[in-house]
Design a protein that fits this description.
Length: 105
């Protein structure tokens, strides 16, 4: 019984991974906020159910606080500082810093 169960869970995980990849393409290529936000919520829901983490750039395209898709120039602002990036979600005003943070004198 354990053999069938492991095969089944692997195939479900593979299907979930494919679904997340398709939803990420939809989310990044569509500038309609309703469609992008629903794709982002589905990505988070599928990832949580199957234990799949988002990879690379796609992990930064969803706001961690309000769980909405971040579309450049529409609902998030990106500022480049010396060796760091500051991303600000314009819906919930969350600021996220990527890279080393320096304290200037």
């Amino acid at each position: 019984m354990s053999r069938n169960r492991s095969k089944r869970s692997r195939s479900r995980r593979a299907v979930a991974t494919e679904a997340i990849k398709d939803l990420e393409c939809i989310m990044l290529n569509n500038y309609d906020t309703d469609i992008s936000n629903s794709a982002a919520s589905l990505i988070l829901r599928i990832g949580k159910k199957h234990g799949i983490r988002r990879s690379g750039y796609y992990g930064f395209s969803i706001c961690r606080k309000c769980k909405k898709a971040l579309i450049p120039g529409i609902n998030y602002r990106l500022r480049i500082r010396s060796k760091s990036l500051k991303k600000t979600c314009l819906d919930c005003e969350e600021v996220r810093t990527l890279g080393p943070s320096f304290v200037r004198d």
